[in-house]
Amino acid sequence: MSLPLISRAPGSGRRTRRLPLGALFASPYALFLLVVFAVPLGYTVWMSFHRFYFTAPGAEVDAPWVGLSNYRDVFTDPVVQRSFFNIAVFLVINVPLTVLLSLVLASALNSKLPLRSFFRAAYYLPYITASVALVAVWSYLFGTDGLVNHALGGLAPDPSWLVNSSLAMPVVAVFVTWKNLGFFVMLYLAALQSVPGELYESAAVDGAGRVRTFLTVTVPGVRPATTLVTVYAIITGSNLFSEPYLLTGGGGPDHASASPVLVLYQKGIEQAHPDFAAALGVVLVLFVVALSLVARRFTEKKEG
Amino acid sequence: MQSSRSSGGPLRMAVLLLGAVAFLFPFLYMFGESLQKANTGELGSVLPRPGSSGTQNYEAVNGAVSLGTSLINSGVFTIGVLLCTLVLGVLAGYALARLHFRGRGTLFATLLLVQTVPFQLLMLPLYVLVVRDYGLGDSYLGMILPFAVNSTAVFLFRQFFLQLPAELFEAARIDGAGEFRVLWRVALPLARPALLTGTLLTFIGPWNEFLWPFLVTKDADMQPLAVSLAGFMSNLRGTVDNPTGAVMAGACVLAVPAVVLFLLFQRHFTQTDIDSAIKG
Hints:
Distance between the termini of chain A: 11 Å
Strand content of chain A: under 5%
Structural class of chain A: mainly alpha
Largest interface: A-B, 121 and 116 residues
CATH class of the domain at 72-225 in chain B: Mainly Alpha
Helix content of chain A: 55-70%
Low-confidence stretches of chain A: 1-18
Mean pLDDT of chain A: 87
CATH superfamily of the domain at 72-225 in chain B: MetI-like
Oligomer: heterodimer
Strand content of chain B: under 5%
CATH architecture of the domain at 72-225 in chain B: Orthogonal Bundle
Number of helices of chain B: 13
Low-confidence stretches of chain B: 1-7, 271-280
Number of strands of chain B: 0
Number of domains of chain A: 1
CATH topology of chain A: MetI-like fold
Radius of gyration of chain A: 24 Å
């Protein structure tokens, strides 16, 4: 099974020659990584320990060392806390839905079928389409006078979905599940190929029915993919921007659908507290890298 | 693996069709509403009907955000990223796979690390550097810079060059070909599938990107379509007769290029090649 986070062993160098040309070929990319990754990362760490202001071009303003005070502000900020709580809401909805639906659809796709490539294409379509375009559609479908409320009639929630503080984040979570599901269907489809066929045969010999076979063979067989879904969900939940910004009008109502990255934008750029946002950024980078390491450990175990 | 559970054909088909409807309905809604003269909020309005359909919504959104300019901006942003990725990314991928140089391991480790840190987390320092320190706000260069070389594509190119038989390269070198000639004459012609996949996965990044161009472009004449459409949704939709139709028309224009490219080349699109779902 191939997964995006898997690193393979670096190429055997025994047949390549020792040439400075390699450094020449790689240097533009190395420079690029330095400029857009290493320098900003260093800068955000530096900023997070200082009192930092946006200044008019050319103006020199001191940025005094303030130790951990920005971090203390981040951890005690109710909006930040709410955004982390929202990741939990996102997880509780996104992970089970994604696992269940992609497992069902991948199992259904996992055989010779008429229209197989049509289904694959249909499932993938939202994944490759711009969030802004799809958010626009969903904002009308789930708007107060939208199609969903028309269909529900008297059962429509009041206040409506996107302006309801207990429904806004769930709608965002369902939207993201829908948008990314095609990717996970393909992930599970690949995972299903790697479940040994003998396991199905022995289950059949033991007289296990379809449901029992599914629960005792298929579900454990794709567990690494399920772990990845969980890790991706946490990372996606931290990084949502277009969805809360556009779908729920800036993470509303009252921050009920704010994500950490949206808070980073609002605090750092809209409200001009870049030092606070820098500290939040550092916390998020550590959080995400730690999670990715966990994900890689799981996928490598699968490979080995 | 062929499914050992081949029974349940009709059920399987029903599940798959239900899934297809759930995935495709919003696209149908987007297209159907974009052609409607007025929004009724009813299911029937998704289907184009003679008499109530037309292109006036496209004209309305074009009047409000100037689709042509936005499309050109999206195009320049996307093509700039594609060119940088295809030239600099292929060079880097080739060097990482086939050449020895000091720091190769470090560079590869950094590549893997970069793929795990979502761009959004570095938006603040990048914004301060690019817009405030380098003065690249409202410029194509500022828009392209953080996306210039797609690391997933570099990884893909490296994996591809690694899989080519080493004898091929040895033979060319024995024939006296320089390293650049080996890359140009031997590796690149063989790498066409990888280049195509790299192009597709790189394309959808900048074309669909909202956050970064939103931060760097304040001038409406510099905004790519995703940003100007979002601006239209938040601020200007009251200025047209049928706001739903106009927003859906803009959404169609934004969605179509990526969808068409995907449909044309979908067999090259497999989950292993696509950037992970980390990118919101």
